[in-house]
Amino acid sequence: MIKLVGKLAVVIIACLLLTTLLSVKAPDKFRVFVIVSSAKDHVKMVAAARPFLEKMAADNNFLINITADTSKINESNLANYQVFVQLHEAPFDMSYSQQAAIQKFIEQGKGWVGIHAAGLTGKGFLAAGKEYWQWFEDYMGGITYSPHPAFQKGVVVIEDHQHPVTRNLPDRFEVPDEWYEFNKSPRSNVRVLGSADESSYRQNKSMGDHPIIWTNEKFKRMIYIGIGHDVSLCNDQNFTILVRDAILWAASSN
């Protein structure tokens, strides 16, 4: 009889524990805000990127909002998100208040993923009378953009397989792109994850040391991906892995 009572007690306790566990709300999915460029050079890629990113979100259990409406870049709206993805939207195309909202979002320790034209630094793009966003240039590693070479195939070399964003990528992979060049290498100010193999394509000007994927470790969750111009990348396995792992890492808390 005592054994029966003991077993019954165990069953009751187990049921109570199960009920408690089932009543605990599952963690909310993290939320990603994507601002896309409306520039004519990027219209085709942006159109292809929408289903590309929406499928990525569904497959990896996060929520995503994709828009070209820059008015949504404000502190109140961004407070709802853990990751800000800047897909081709250039920093100089934003208003002062929008720049300030992004800067605050980043300085709060939230995630930022910049793709391709998101890295167009330099005063040469400024409209007359507009103040330059120097903070962003420093954030990018203290570099300014130079005219890129002709669109062509080239090779990305992954230098750092220890980082979560690049650990699932092969040592080298080929993609077609514009191979953005800068006035100098940002290496002394950033952690380089991948670089362009300049022997694999014709440069506009040789940088010698040509980082193309990097993170600025002065900030908690920042990564810049220099490739991403062409529609074909939305069907490229390595680009998919790169963007997916960049977003997942940018959302992580450890």
Task: Write up this protein.
With 254 residues, the protein is an alpha/beta fold. It has a single domain, classed as Class I glutamine amidotransferase (GATase) domain (Rossmann fold, 3-Layer(aba) Sandwich). It is built from 6 helices and 11 strands. The strands form 2 sheets. It has a 9-stranded mixed β-sheet, sandwiched between helices. It has a two-stranded antiparallel sheet with strand order 5-8. The longest helix is centred in the N-terminal third of the chain and has 22 residues. It is globular, with a radius of gyration of 22 Å. The protein starts with a helix and ends with a helix.
Instruction: Give me the CATH fold name.
Output: Rossmann fold
How many domains? The number is 1
Approximately how much beta-strand content do the residues carry?
Answer: 15-25%
Helix-strand category: alpha/beta
- The CATH homologous superfamily is termed Class I glutamine amidotransferase (GATase) domain
CA distance, first residue to last residue: 51 Å
By DSSP, the count of extended strands is 11
Radius of gyration, whole Å: 22 Å
The largest β sheet comes out as: 9 strands, mixed
Count up the helices: 6
